[in-house]
Amino acid sequence: MTLETMIVSRDWQEISVLECILGSLHVGVRVEPDAEQARKRFGRAKVDAVIVDRDLSGTERFVCGMRSARNSKTVPLILMSASPDRHGLPLSGATFYFEKPVSVDQAVRTLSAARNLILNGRLRYHRESLNVPVSLRFGRQRNMSVHLMNLSQGGIGILAGQPLDVRGPVTISFELPESGVSVEAEGEFAWTDSGGNAGIRFVTVPEALHRNLQLWLEKRYFARVS
User: Which runs of E-coded beta strand occur in the chain?
Assistant: First the structure.
């Protein structure tokens, strides 16, 4: 499964620019030249982002319909128009706005930001199941080896051989499978149970490591759902 953007427009010159940029970002494009048909399709199809040409007749109703749709809060809305006073950004709930003719530099920045919003939304609650060893270090003295059961952007789930009764900060160390990336981050226990299961929340993750984690999770997520 790839990301999918709906472009509601008949301005084929602008559409070709946007298609080229979205293609380079590995985002699929569906063009709907009729606003009413786009409104019907939005309610049925899986759409990750929408670009609406406000110069196209009928798009006001489409944008209003998007605002009331159940999944609208998770779908970035990008408006474009040749008339700056027509975009209605504050009232529409749109995330971004293009003024036509669309600047390629602006479009690259904006569409890259939109793609990141989509991915963050998809991955925020995603947990990748794993079964690899992880080392926990408490302070300077105590070390413990446990099993890493799942990984998310925000932390890890582990299984120890015994119930855990620990407090305070913990240093987490493990290897990301098939990546060559060593993870070392500071965390804290979010919960534990009597079966030795526990959740550890990341507290401090270096920026470069955070990016590597995100890329690894993206790769595994899309490999699993494709």
Answer: 3-8, 27-32, 49-53, 77-81, 96-99, 128-138, 142-151, 155-159, 169-175, 182-192, 197-204
